[in-house]
Every structure is written in C-alpha cells, then in structure tokens.
Amino acid sequence: MKLKTNLMLILSMLALLIGSFSGCANTPITEESVLEVPANPEVNDSDHADIILISYPAIPAIEVCIPVMKEAFQRTDIQVEFQSYPVERSLQIANYGKTHGELSRIKGIDKNYENLIQIPVANNFVRLFPITLDADIQITSIEDLKLYHIGSVRGTKLVENAAADLNIEWANDNESLFSLMDNGRIDIVLSTDLVFHEMKQSSSLDYSEDIRLAGDYLLEAELYPYIHKDYPELIENLTKVLKEMEAEGRIEELLKDEKEKMFNK
C-alpha cells in the first residue's frame, strides 16, 4: 500500500512538471519581450565587458561592409562582434541600446531612430535593380514601376522613401520575396545585384534560370554606420579611423574585394 501511495505521489509530481513546461512553451513571444532581453547576455560578464556589439540585417548588400568595420575596430583596439537580425528588428534593437550600434544604413534614419548617431563617413553603398521573372518587362525609370506590383524586403529604407506612389508588397526575407514573385503576387523585386546573383545561382529554386534584371539600377545611396548615443567616445574614435581609411582608399578596396568574393561563390 505504501509503495502504491509513493508511486501515485511521483506520478502527480511528474504531471505538475510536464504541465509547467507546457505552459512555458505556449507563452507568446512578442517584440516587446525580445527587446527586454539583452542582445547578448555575455556582455554583462566581466570577461566580455569590452566587446562591442553591432547589429545588422543578414543581407548581402549590408554584409559586404563587415570587413570595413572589422578593420576600423581593429585600428581602435576594440573587440567587436556582429549579430544578425531581420531588417527592421535590427534597427529597433540598436535604437533600444541592446547593441552598441547598427552596421550600415542610409543617411537620415536617425530622424526616426533618435538614439542612433550617424558616423559621417560612408562605409558602403547600395544600388537597387528591378528583378523579374517576366521576359517582357523592361524598366527604365521609377515611373515605369507604377505599372506593376512591386516587392521588397521589409525595413529597406531606400525603397520605403521612394514608395509613396508604388504598389508595394513587403516580405520578411529574400526567399519569401522571390516566392511571392514566383507565385504571381508581384511582378518585380527591387533589390541589389548581390541578391540577384545569389538567387540566380540558388540550387534550391526551380525557377532560378528565369530570374533576370529588367533594367539598370533605379535607386542608389551611400550607407553609414550608426552608434548609440550613449557611446560618444566610440563615435569619436570610429569617425577618426574611418576618415583615415577613406583617405587611404581602404574602404573602397575592402568593399571591392568582398563583393568579388560574394560574386565568385
């Protein structure tokens, strides 16, 4: 009888434990809850106190300038880590101070993300091309885009700024974006030549051979690093180093080398 009672007690405790885990699994994860958590808890440890965290969206046009910023931080004797997030979330995380800054964005985003300070030296540039699966579409200007359904990755500020009169559908990433085009929901993707190359060479897309440029680039902009306003000394040091690298032609050299590597993958 005692054995039976103990067994029932053990089974009851197990049921309570399983129930508690199930409750945790069903708790919804919201943007607010993500932003309440440090991007990397290790930076609170004494062994990691000197690491600078820079967020960025994991898209080729932004990743291409990681070598530029790696060298800039090396020249200032600062250890840096780069952490990737979705395009819009990356900006939010940097603005909330969960990282020290944002890798590379167009000029003027500090108007909406007021905690970020733009370093006044471009570390990258981007050009957006019309990409399509339709062999009959030819685009020569932004005006031409008004005749079609356009798609872009959510958080692409250069497109957002030009999107007032365009019929645009947003996607969270390039795979979803090109899937929309393959399914006929959009006619044209606005993206970079690096993305065009990546998707054209993709072995996972059965329509990759049909991906083509519908014209020359339509939008272009220089991109700049942004640092959270709480780090004025870091802003000063990076500005000094990047100005030196710009004068040496080093930024242009590193961008060219990295872009060639991406094209040759």
Question: In summary, what is this structure?
Answer:
It contains 11 helices and 10 strands. The protein has helices at 2-25, 31-35, 60-63, 66-75, 87-95, 142-145, 157-162, 174-182, 193-200, 232-248, 250-263; strands at 52-57, 80-85, 101-106, 116-118, 124-132, 149-153, 167-171, 188-191, 212-213, 219-228. Mean pLDDT is 84; it is low at 1-31 and 37-48.
Structure description:
By secondary structure, the protein is an alpha/beta fold. The chain folds into 2 domains: about 50-125 and about 220-265, 3-Layer(aba) Sandwich (D-Maltodextrin-Binding Protein, domain 2), CATH 3.40.190; about 125-220, D-Maltodextrin-Binding Protein, domain 2. Helices cover about 40% and strands about 20% of the residues. The protein is built from 11 helices and 10 strands. The chain has helices at about 1-25, 30-35, 60-65, 65-75, 85-95, 140-145, 155-160, 175-180, 195-200, 230-250, 250-265; strands spanning about 50-55, 80-85, 100-105, 115-120, 125-130, 150-155, 165-170, 190, 210-215, 220-230. Strands 1, 2, 3, 4, 5, 6, 7, 8, 9 and 10 form a 10-stranded mixed beta sheet that branches. The longest helix is centred in the N-terminal third of the chain and has 24 residues, at about 1-25.
